Amino acid sequence: MSEIQKLTSLSNDQLKLASEVLSNAFQEDPVFSKLIPNGKERHKTLFKIFKFQIKYCLKHGVVLSASNLKGISLWYPPKNALISIWKSIKSGSLSLIFKIKWKNLHILRKNDDFCEDLHKKLVPIPHWYLSTIGIDPKHQSKGIGRRMLSFMINQIAKDHKIIYLETNSKRNVKLYKRFGFRNLHKVLTPRTNTYHWSMIRCPIKKK
Fold first, then answer.
1. Backbone phi, psi, residue 74, to 5°
2. What values do phi and psi take at 4, rounded to 5?
3. Exposure check for the chain: N or C terminus, fewer CB within 10 A?
4. What is the Cα–Cα distance from 165 to 146, expressed in whole angstroms?
5. What angle do CA 172, 173, 178 make, to 5 degrees?
6. Nearest partner of 7 among 87, 80, 71, 65, judged by Cα
């Protein structure tokens, strides 16, 4: 069984490995595949995006890892559930302008705006946000994602807070439902033919 741990820092080599794990995990994501059709461009762009997101989450959220960085998940507590523009700038978001092709950065920003607008509208109360969860393709279907979910859900249960997440995978919808999540909203993602599911998990009331 993979050991799940909270990360507080990563060496530069570990950060690169973690970014590679997430970019590989999302390489065939239906939305990213539609928005950035070129496979090499997509992987290069996702690597840089995830590298920034991991660094941001290390400062403002909770980064979970399976042993040897086989899986990574990014979680944000209620006070940071909505990404701050100012905190993003302080974490180096402006540097992405010089690292990613403008057309790709622009279209991904549009997609982020779509997701953020839904997020703000659907969950206006304090909640945890599961931003990203990805498993190294070589280690998928081994229960790593389930263990990361269980670990963090058990931690958050102590605070009796809602958890919010998004997915573009019908398969993942079924998985999250097994962990007590329910569908909150379903809509086609702009510029794609792929559905976007918004899901929440409400705290279980004590009897």
1. -115, 120
2. -100, 135
3. C
4. 15
5. 95
6. 65
Is residue 185 a part of any domain in this protein? Answer: yes
Centroid of chain to Cα 112 = 12
Contact 25, 134 (CB under 8 A): yes
Residue at 41: amino acid letter: E
pLDDT digit string, tens, across residues 4-50: 999 999 999 999 999 999 999 999 999 999 999 999 999 999 999 99
H helix or E strand, kind and range, residue 6: strand 5-7
Instruction: Tell whether 144 is covered by a domain.
Output: yes
What amino acid occupies position 164?
Y
Place of tokens 């549009």: 110
Q: What's the distance, CA 191 to chain centroid?
A: 20
> Which range of residues forms the domain containing residue 156?
5-201
Classify 73 as helix, strand or coil.
Answer: strand
Please provide residue 114's backbone torsions phi and psi, each rounded to the nearest 5 degrees: -60, -45
Considering its fold, how many domains does the chain have in total?
1
- Reading the block at residue 91, the tokens are 């974490």
Instruction: List alpha helices for the chain, DSSP H.
Output: 12-25, 30-35, 39-60, 85-90, 96-99, 102-122, 144-157, 170-178
The pair of three-digit structure tokens given for residue 159, joined into one six-digit string? 């605070």
For 78-115, write each residue's pLDDT tens digit.
999 998 888 898 888 888 888 999 999 999 999 999 99
pTM for the model stands at 0.94
